[in-house]
Amino acid sequence: MKRKKLIASLSSSPRPIPEAGLPKADTVETLRELQRLFYSCITRPPVPEDGRKTKGNPGEGMAALAEQLIRPSARQSPFDRLEIYHRQYWLRLREALSEDFPGLESLLGSERFSGLLEAYLLRYPPTSPMLRELGSRLPRFLREERDWAAPHPRRLVLDLARFEWARIVAFYASEHPLPRKERTTPETRLFLQPHLVLLDLHYPVERWTLETRLPSAPAESASAAHPGPPKSGESRVSPERRRIVLHRQGQTVYHKILPREAFFLLRSFSKGSSLLQACNQTAEKFPDLPPGRYGEWFREWASLGWLTTQPRSRSRSAAS
Amino acid sequence: MPSNRFNASSEYGIGVGLRVPHYDQILRKKPVVDWFELLSESFLADGGRQREVLDRVLQQYRVVLHGVGLYFGSAEPLDRSHLRKLKALVRRTGSPWLSDHLCWGSADGRFSHDLLPMPFTMAAARHTAAKIRQAADFLEVPVSVENISSYAEWTASTMTEWEFLSEVAEQADCGILLDINNVYIVSENHGFDPYAYLDQIPHARVSQIHIGGHSRFATHILDTHDQPVADPVWQLYGYAIGKLGATPTLLEWDDRIPPFEEVHREAQKANRFLVQLASTHP
Asked: Which CATH class is domain B5-278?
């Protein structure tokens, strides 16, 4: 019941026809009005399979609107013709999000996952021509709408969504030039590579095998030995705090668990810090950290190419 | 005619769409293919596997970019950020021309991720043509528009689809990517003679042809690209080649994709028409 209430509260009905009558597309403005009408028809909530009347399935009103917009064919009514686009819209977007969040779908179960996506897309319709950006605001939506996680712990569901979105970011983001050693001083400002995502998680979601359907299926570093995520309604998962970095090497996305001190140090570079500033801040927070660890970490991070002198662009949503 | 300013006066033959399930085989075995068509939006990312594949494909093959994200017919203006990325990709790939669809797909900054049918009116044609001109000027390569498959016709339309396509192409001074499968599908869905469509469009503007498979249902045909090209589409293709001469032709196979050899074999069937019919073209 809760799910139905949520959808009803978020649903959008087709736009009404303007008082002046159906736009004729004889100017750019009326073309715009006509396209808005069509768009509102095909993006309204999916119709329940049992065909019952809901806010998204307004029955005769929708059929009447379709008749004004669309010509009938020899074998189809205007409503049926419009419905082809309506069904395609939801099928296409669900398929895309299902590919990007396979673990979340497995955890929530197919029906609840579908309900979540419908509610998500009604609040956050696609605003990018790139289909791969579709899930960028799903973690945010799960923060706003906590009920979708039930019966699982809210943080578990959120962590899984953040982790799966972070994999998309790490796979597609650019790689900036590496710092030149001879030009790097303690005062040099450094930034994280755009393909590097830091996640502070409450659950060990990275342990689960997440069948990836990214192009050409890059492997995950720690996935092979672990079972998949629990199925919908399955066993309890114990919380286990962990700080993770996801990054790309070549065409493969990897993840790595970091000590909290290293995570703190690395996070200092997310907004750009000099080596000196970042180390000072970390030493202040963790006074017992042996100085030798800094050198070890920076050598490792340099070999993995995690840092750059070029700031990130702000266009991409951060998963963390 | 087949080699014209809309395909940069190039002499491309039969190509195949580059698709993920074939990457490994293409990179490993390097099959002989005249050219690949790349879905532009799949290669706009700054990194990752797609970019690496692209670089390796470019070492071996000629490619042409074909997009789904410009939405020339949307009432809203072109997305400048998308155009900038596209221009960088054009330069990187050396694509001699670029195509996208004669459709709309977004309203108020929200995207349907579908190719939606236009109302065929003169105002819509003018607006669409202006956007194509802007895109071509910015991208600095010839642009072609592709006729889409559609399942609905607007009551607001005041002209036929081929009249609209011709009007847009003339006003934009752009090329036409003629999708023969789509011509067949819309002729069946909307009830008109597909041969009349082919007779009426400006032949000198056709830069490229698409062929592909479709799925027939009781009430309509869907453009599914998931099976071989149907016989009526091959017949229509033969008729088009008779009118146009040998034109760069590409097979689209995007779903339930079989092994590369099968896709390539299907594409090569176009050869029998090119050989038989192009010779009769004046």
From this structure: alpha beta
